[in-house]
């Protein structure tokens, strides 16, 4: 099977948004999007077409396409779609970074972090986990070092960014 050069390239190093035509030679824009998803590449994709219909639009949105534009495309509509794609990309990258940081925590650190994020004080966590307050302080210090912050607000932001859908 012939594969477009774009799909053969290693493109994970420079995330961006994709602007693809629904009808392209060798592979449709929708097929390309699906192949990227199979590789774990979840870049925001804008689909353009001169041959759009409701079914094509529905299939595109079900596949996770961010926007579906029909030709001729108004310049401002295209620019707005691209800006929206980059805002979505920022959220995707933030989520991936948060998930990577959270994966670096031990199971116990994650348990302590969850309690901290729910507003529990050190002593309450210590009692609930049947350990000393000093042990909880040590866990909190490890968490702060691994996550790069000791702010409870940042902890909450990181944990919510690591679990929410962009």
Characterise this structure.
The chain folds into two domains: 16-101, Rossmann fold; 105-161, Arc Repressor Mutant, subunit A. Helix content is 58%, strand content 8%. It has eight helices and three strands; from the N terminus they run H-E-H-E-H-E-H-H-H-H-H. It has helices at residues 5-8, 29-38, 54-62, 75-103, 107-117, 122-129, 133-147, 152-161; strands at residues 18-21, 45-49, 67-70. It has a three-stranded parallel beta sheet, with helices on both faces. Helix 5 packs across helix 8. It is elongated and about 65 Å long.
Helix content: 55-70%
What's the name of the CATH homologous superfamily of the largest domain? Response regulator
Summarize the helix and strand pattern as letters: HEHEHEHHHHH
Mean pLDDT: 87
CATH 2nd-level architecture of the largest domain = 3-Layer(aba) Sandwich
Strand segment tally:
3
Count of individual domains: 2
Describe how the helices and strands are arranged.
Blueprint: H1 5-8, E1 18-21, H2 29-38, E2 45-49, H3 54-62, E3 67-70, H4 75-103, H5 107-117, H6 122-129, H7 133-147, H8 152-161
Parallel strand pairs: 1-2, 2-3
Helix pairs in contact: 5-7, 5-8, 6-7
Short description, anyone?
By secondary structure, the chain is mostly helical. Helices cover 58% and strands 8% of the residues. It has helices at residues 5-8, 29-38, 54-62, 75-103, 107-117, 122-129, 133-147, 152-161; strands at 18-21, 45-49, 67-70.
Name the descriptors.
Arc Repressor Mutant, subunit A; mainly alpha; Rossmann fold; three-stranded parallel sheet; 8 helices; 166 residues; 8% strand; elongated; 2 domains
């Amino acid at each position: 099977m012939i594969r477009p050069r774009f799909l053969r390239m290693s493109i994970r190093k420079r995330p961006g948004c994709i602007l693809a035509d629904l009808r392209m030679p060798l592979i449709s824009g929708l097929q390309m999007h699906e192949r990227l998803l199979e590789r774990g590449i979840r870049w925001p994709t804008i689909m353009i077409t001169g041959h759009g219909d409701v079914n094509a639009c529905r299939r595109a949105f079900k596949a996770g396409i961010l926007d579906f534009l029909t030709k001729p495309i108004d310049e401002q509509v295209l620019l707005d779609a691209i800006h929206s794609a980059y805002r979505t990309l920022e959220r995707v990258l933030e989520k991936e970074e948060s998930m990577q940081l959270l994966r670096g925590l031990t199971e116990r650190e994650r348990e302590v972090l969850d309690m901290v994020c729910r507003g529990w004080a050190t002593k309450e966590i210590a009692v609930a986990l049947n350990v000393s307050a000093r042990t909880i302080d040590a866990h909190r210090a490890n968490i702060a070092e691994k996550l790069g912050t000791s702010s409870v607000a940042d902890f909450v932001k990181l944990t919510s960014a690591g679990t929410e859908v962009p």
